[in-house]
UniProtKB/TrEMBL annotation:
Gene3D superfamilies noted in UniProt: Impact, N-terminal domain
Source organism: Flavobacterium limi
Residue span(s) of domain Impact N-terminal: 22-128
Protein name (database record): Impact N-terminal domain-containing protein
Family label: Belongs to the IMPACT family.
A matching Pfam family: Impact_N
């Protein structure tokens, strides 16, 4: 079975970009994010940075298929003239785990629906164009539990399969009083089924996806 287990995102927060149209100024920013909780603090920070702006419009996408979450926010601009064109650029660049914000200062001349769409689209495009786009793997995380006596067996497989250990601990089992090992490890999605089967077939070794 073929897996698409990679995705594209941005490596770092972008530098500020500026687009001007009929006196209005549009400042654009792009941020790498991992969850929705990061969005509000970023918006609040930009409001403090630009207290006299009239709109703080944004869009984001998080996750990979089939679990994708996204939002497009017009922040008072006419419906679908700001957030949607910003989100369109995230899609156009093929990115996820990214937030793009466009801060607008009104210049006294209304741009109309078409003008607004073009301005927000262009500013978002400018912000993403200067970002370093990187490819990351979609990883599956496992928790492997075992009696201490089986430590060498577990570590041998981890070494053979070149798995990354994300945490490791020992604890005393309440029933037996013997030490129990717990290792959290991860592998890219395309290898997950094979890795799970390898450990699942081992006597006295427990593995679960977390």
């Amino acid at each position: 079975m073929e897996y698409n287990d990679t995705y594209q995102t941005i490596a770092f927060e972008s530098e500020e970009v500026l687009f001007k149209e009929k006196g209005s100024k549009f400042f654009g920013y792009a941020f790498p994010i991992q969850n929705e909780d990061e969005v509000k603090p970023i918006i609040e920070s930009l409001k403090k940075q630009h207290p006299n702006a009239v709109h703080y419009c944004y869009a984001y996408q998080i996750g990979t298929a089939p679990k994708i979450s996204y939002r497009a926010n017009d922040d008072g601009e006419p419906g679908n003239t700001a957030g949607t064109p910003i989100y369109g650029q995230i899609q156009s660049f093929g990115l996820t785990n990214v937030l793009v914000v466009v801060v607008r200062f009104f210049g006294g001349i209304k741009l109309g629906v078409g003008g607004l769409i073009a301005a927000y689209k262009t500013t978002a495009q400018m912000a993403l164009e200067i970002c370093e786009i990187i490819e990351k793997t979609i990883d599956v995380n496992f928790l492997i539990s075992f009696d201490y006596k089986n430590m060498n067996r577990v570590m041998r497989v981890i070494k053979e399969k070149k798995l990354e250990i994300t945490s490791q601990e020992m604890e005393i089992d309440e029933d037996s009083g013997l030490p129990i090992g717990k290792i959290m490890t991860k592998t890219r999605k395309k290898n997950a089924e094979s890795i799970f089967s390898t450990f699942d077939l081992m006597f006295e070794i427990n593995i679960k996806i977390i």
